[in-house]
Amino acid sequence: MASEWQDRLDAACEAAKKAGAFLKDIPSFSVEHKAANDYVTDADRQSEEMIRSFLLERYPSDGFLGEEESETSGRTGRWIVDPIDGTTNFVKGLPLYTVSIAYETQGRIVAGCVYCPPLDEMYTAMEGQGACLNGKPMHTSGNPVLRDAVVGMSFAHRHEDAGKRMMHVLPAMRSALSDMRRLGSAALDLCFVACGRYDAFLELHLYLYDIAAGALIVREAGGIVTSWPGDKEKVEENGNVFAASAAIYGGLYDMIARAEGNGETLKPDAIIVLGHRLNPDNTPSDDLKRRIDKTVEYWKETGCPVVMPCGGKTRGRTRTEAEVMKEMLLERGMPEKVIKLENESRTTGENIRNALKLLGKDALVALVTADYHLESALMDCKEYGLKAYGVGAVTPEGPYREKVYAQAAFMKRMREERRAQAEKLGISMEEMDRRFMEERRAAHDRAIASGMTEEEFMQKSFAAMKQRLRDMGFDPSVMED
Question: What stretches of 255-404 adopt beta strand conformation (E)?
């Protein structure tokens, strides 16, 4: 099935490029007002007709929904097209407009592209296949801190009620965020979330052709796209877009909910807290204490019914991280019935599989871990099919923070290599992780069978890891305890 959508995606990209070239080179165009504060040009109409003719000639059984002309029905699916998203920018000569094309079948958007002609940037995604910028994989920001977040937004100036709603939350956004941006092209705003230039994008009263491709691209890049807090309709129905990286989504969503006063803060089905290696004497590290404090704080805010501490036994320790974490949660007043202690898994992938078995694939999970680990952990959740948003425990400034962020950069590179290898082999990341862990266990068993002690095996493994760090240009000391 993926190859069928690849054909549709390739066609969409080709059509968007053709329309983009036309728009860049058009010598002149007429401008009309189709509504208050809303332009349409003959370039919009010509671009849409160019895209319609190209796609329906190739796929005559498809339907077509464009911004400028009436919809035509089809048997196999339909194209959803905005021929110029950001018409005002186009009219004024601002180089921030896009061509947006999505393909929908059986009620699902399965492929989409957004092309920005002035920047020559092509954003693409297929359902279940990730998202790319100019052919290279991209993902959303890993920043979990609202104070550091840059958020795209709109004043919803074409709709009175929506405009009042946006203006009501602006003071809270101004106080809580690093900064805000207003581009004038919702499709490009969404793509900026997908590639990490923005942490989030909020807008009200958009149309399906504005968001169909961009929303898929954000989701496939690891982000979350929903309607606003308190809304009963889905975002595709009401056009109230709340798009964010998974790392910032929970905090931003709750902040907007409180600003609106509707009480609709997020209610996760479970909180998963990922462990951190214990001190050599089996006491919790400061890093682990911060995670537990953040977990208790968020549990009190949400009243979440399930809290899952996850973490196995690292070298030289006699207790599992999960056991120690459970004790810490109890000491901080959490009832024992809330805490679900999972098995002694070591990797994030194993933790996610255990959570899926306990909670089911439709559960919404708040994932608590350190800020430096949040991005990779949330990408793992996406690849395994666990719906999750991040609650980051902030690491204080200083040498330790520099060290763990360097570790995270190294582990991210390692993960990207494994992901590329999985794609080459045509297998999922879950299967790739399973094979990786099997090989690790087999290597351990072979070493012990040959007469090597556990300590000798760990020393050999650690030496190999440090050499890999050197080979990849990292300082090997970042992996030392």
Answer: 270-274, 307-310, 364-370, 387-393
Geometric angle at alpha carbon 24, from 20 and 29, rounded to 5°: 105
Going from N- to C-terminal start, the domains of the chain cover 2-137, 146-260, 267-395, 397-481
Choose which CATH entry (3.30.70.560, 1.10.3520.10, 3.40.190.80, 3.30.420.40) describes domain 146-260.
3.40.190.80
Among 33-47, 241-255, 357-371, which stretch is predicted with the lowest mean pLDDT?
33-47
User: Could you tell me which of 210, 223, 160, 159 has the C-alpha nearest to residue 184?
Assistant: 210
**Whether the predicted pLDDT of 288 surpasses 50:** yes
- pLDDT class for 34, splitting at 50, 70, 90? low
Which pLDDT belongs to residue 346?
61
Question: Residue 202 above 50 pLDDT?
Answer: yes
Tokens of 18: 């053709």
pTM, full prediction: 0.85
Instruction: Single out the residue of 199, 169, 148, 140 nearest to residue 375, CA to CA.
Output: 140
Q: Sign of torsion, CA 356 359 362 366?
A: negative
- Fold classification of 2-137 (topology level): Fructose-1,6-Bisphosphatase; Chain A, domain 1 (3.30.540)
